Amino acid sequence: MEITILIFLFGGLFLGWSLGANDAANVFGTAVGTRMVSFTSAAIICSVFVILGAIISGAGTTETLGKLGAINALPGAFAACVAAGISVYLMTKVGLPVSTTQAIVGAIVGWNLYTGSSTNLQVLITILGTWILCPIIAGVIAMGLFTFTKRVILNRKLHILRLDAYTRTALLIAGAFGAYSLGANNIANVMGVFVPISPFTDVTIGNLFVFSSKEQLFLLGGLAIAVGVFTYSKRVMFTVGNDLLKMTPVAAFIVVISHSIVLFLFASQGISAFLQSINLPSIPLVPVSSSQAVVGGVIGIGLLKGGKEVQWSIAGRISLGWMTLPIIAALISLIVLFILENIFNLTVSF
Amino acid sequence: MFGLKSASLFGDTKKLEREIDEFVDIVSEVGLVFKSIVPTYLNHSANGKFEEMVEKVKEMESKADKITKDVEHTLYEETLIPDARSDVLRLLEHIDELIGMYQGNCYHFSIQKPNFPKEFHEDLIELTETVVNCVESLCLTVRSFFRDIKSVRDNAHKVTFYEKESDIKFSALARRIFDSELPLDQKMHLRYFVEKIDRICDQAEDIADEVQIYAIKRSV
Question: Which of A216, A296, A337, B153 has its CA 20 to 30 A from that of B64?
Answer without folding.
Answer: B153
